[in-house]
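Entry 14. Two folds queued back to back today. First construct below, sequence then structure tokens.
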Amino acid sequence: MRASAPPSSKPPRRASSTRRAQFSDATLVDLHDPPTRPPVLVKAHQQLDKAIDAACIAAEKAAGHKAPKPGNDAKRVAFRFGRYQALTSVLPAA
């Protein structure tokens, strides 16, 4: 039987914190403003959006709802906040 490694006192680094460390001289404005955002962060955000879209679609299908079609950023954000509100609201849906 193999002994397991002792738990680390540090939580695992997330990809976002690892990417942020690569640009320690940049401000958050620099990193989030489309004209100044480094291409590697643009790609990371796109990959994250795809993963979240896939999870949202799967969750909606599993709940028996019509799966949303990923659209532009405005539609994506509106859908995510709508789902967040539905999941966290103490009031029944209208």
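Second construct, same run, same settings:
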Amino acid sequence: MRTFGSSLRSSPSLWLFAGLLASLPLTPILIASLLAQDVSVFLNWAAEPEHDSRKKQGVTYLFTLAAILAVTGYYKRFRWSPLKTRKISYTN
């Protein structure tokens, strides 16, 4: 199964013209379906050209948040360990 949308150079129409899919039994309905899917992927990309930059920013934010969470957790453990490990003894 092929994935679409990663780049426009992987379009099935270019494969058809290059003759790479000539050995596979393709019906006109399948060719039309592949071309329609390619067009819809292109239109989706044209509608949101900033999608890739937003996705990269989101991944960067998630990694930054994970790093901050790790540092905060380590700091909490280091700072609160004397209070959590002390022994309270009650004398009569």
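Quick look at the second one. Residues 50-92 form one domain. The two ends are 77 Å apart (CA to CA).
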